[in-house]
Design a protein that fits this description.
The complex is a heterodimer of chains A (227) and B (212). Chain A is of the alpha/beta class. Chain A has seven helices and eight strands. The two termini of chain A are 30 Å apart. Chain B is built from nine helices and five strands; from the N terminus they run ααααβαβαβαβαβα. Chain B starts with a helix and ends with a helix. Bound molecules: cobalamin.
């Protein structure tokens, strides 16, 4: 069986660790994590990569649904394997979307290294608009947030990111904490251990919202006009 | 002024935008024309943001400028007011489990300046809260906002709660957010949905007109 992985580079460190742990040697195609800013573009870019026939049996998508970015994708030459999780945060915390603390903004090494992240948002703002406006803008952005949480996914040395995260928490007035995360879901994906946590999409079938098994959405099947 | 205003918004130049709009209002330029240009500028900001040129902070800045313009005394579209009464009442909020509110606020500022009375319940709003507010205000429209995938079941719960409370025949429901399409909207059971604030406003207005 030949598989290839299409992955978001925000999850780079966790993916490399999980691959290592499972002795997986599948080829990885990386996509830019910044695509999460625009879910329609993320879907288009994913479809482009999926359409390239690399002669494999399965395409493993190392993604969450990411605001329905995955809904509507289809593949004519391989089956797709999709983790049933809302986004990379619920994936690393191994929790359902509605169990995630709502007033918390999450960081990982991958999120910190994104071309545009909350740290860079802040410095960009200060440079472009000055202190006063920065305060106003961040009040709008994070009005409903109380906490900043660094996820210890085991994929990087925490010490390297704690000080920086604490500093930004202070700047934007959030309480800082660290929480243990895990790479279990990625490990299962790479070990071909696709039990109930994954949806396997047959050739020429579209990924639907129902595949993610969110509560109450099982009847949504056709999303043709999303594309 | 057309290109100048669009350019000033696109560049997020607050002072310049306000200056141009004020001088246009003094000249008696039609508010709808200004609004149209404002929207064009906002769309450009949206594009630049989607192309990863702009930050989320810039998107928020655009929202702040947008609101400032709409709050100018002369920008209220008084024509839509029926006497002193608002055009209609809208209860709005981001649904349970979701805290994203940039889109909701853009829409509500627009609707407010168009003459609607707005009751904003904020974010992470429980279905019962919406029901309560609808009872209290007798609003004609309920606006639900959300961008997380869990917003979809929450929106459905909210629509169901309104129905179960026996209020549905008096209120039209519109859902807004980037992840909605006609299938999800059908599932939610709202009367309409949109990914665009201007379009949402048009829909709300058409409901009120049909009412009268
Ligand atoms: C900005 C943003 C944020 C900001 C929000 C600031 C704020 N105050 O709202 C911040 C940085 C705080 C944030 C936080 C998080 N976010 Co966020 N965020 C986004 C982003 C990039 C844009 C959303 C947005 O504001 N768009 C711009 C507005 C203008 O568009 P809009 O909402 O569609 O609104 C328009 C129309 O739809 C309409 N409209 C909207 N509402 C209504 C209502 C009515 C009645 C009407 C008529 C019209 C209408 O009018 C608007 C103007 O035209 C999206 C990606 C995306 N493109 O959707 C991710 C996204 C929603 N976020 C996501 C994630 C993962 C998170 C975090 C978990 C990240 C983290 N590291 O912790 C946290 C949430 C924490 C938590 N505990 O849940 C995911 C969600 C995945 C999912 N579960 O579904 C997304 C999809 C990104 C992704 N692809 O992964 N986020």
């Amino acid at each position: 069986m030949k598989n290839i992985i299409i992955a978001c580079d925000t999850l780079k460190y966790e993916i490399l660790v999980a691959k290592d742990k499972t002795n997986n040697s599948d080829e990885i195609i990386w996509l830019d994590g910044m695509l999460h800013m625009d879910t329609d573009r993320l879907r288009t870019e994913l479809q482009k990569e999926i359409d390239i026939d690399r002669g494999c049996d399965h395409i493993l998508l190392a993604y969450g649904n990411c605001g329905n970015a995955l809904v509507g994708l289809n593949c004519s030459h391989a089956k797709m394997v999709v983790p049933k999780t809302a986004d990379c945060i619920s994936m690393l915390l191994n929790k359902k979307e509605d169990e995630i603390s709502r007033d918390t903004y999450f960081l990982t090494r991958g999120w910190i290294e994104l071309e545009k992240n909350i740290v860079r948002e802040y410095s960009h703002c200060q440079e472009k608009y000055g202190d006063e406006k920065t305060k106003q803008i961040f009040k709008v952005m994070l009005n409903n947030y109380r906490n900043l949480m660094l996820i210890d996914s085991g994929a990087y040395d925490l010490n390297d990111y704690t000080a920086l995260s604490k500093e930004i928490a202070k700047k934007i007035n959030l309480n800082f904490s660290i929480k243990k995360g895990e790479t279990t879901m990625l490990e299962k994906l790479f070990a071909n251990d696709w039990g109930n946590d994954f949806a396997i999409i047959e050739k020429d079938k579209q990924i639907t919202m129902a595949d993610f098994e969110l509560d109450n959405v099982s009847i949504i099947n056709c999303v043709s006009n999303l594309m | 002024m057309n290109e100048l205003l669009v350019k000033a918004i696109t560049e997020l130049n607050e002072d310049k935008v306000l200056k141009i709009v004020k001088s246009e209002l003094e000249k008696g330029t039609d508010i709808n024309e200004i609004l149209y240009l404002l929207q064009q500028g906002m769309d450009k900001v949206g594009d630049l943001y989607e192309e990863c040129e702009y930050f989320i902070a810039d998107l928020i800045m655009a929202g702040i400028i947008f609101r400032e313009v709409l709050e100018l005394e002369d920008m209220r579209f008084n024509g839509d007011y029926v006497g002193d009464k608002p055009l209609g009442k809208i209860v709005i909020g981001t649904v349970k489990g979701d805290l994203h509110d940039i889109g909701k606020d853009i829409f509500l500022n627009l609707a407010r300046s168009a003459g609607f009375q707005i009751y904003d319940l904020g974010v992470d709003v429980e279905p019962e809260k919406f029901v309560e507010k609808l009872r209290e205000t007798e609003a004609e429209v309920l606006g639900l906002s959300g961008v997380l995938s869990l917003a979809i079941p929450s929106m459905k719960q909210t629509v169901d709660a309104v129905r179960n409370a026996g209020l549905k025949q008096n209120v039209k429901i519109i859902a807004g957010g980037n992840l909605l399409n006609s299938d999800t909207a059908g599932h939610i059971g709202a009367d309409s949905f949109t990914n665009n604030a201007m379009e949402g406003l048009k829909i709300c207005k058409s409901w009120i007109k049909n009412d009268r």
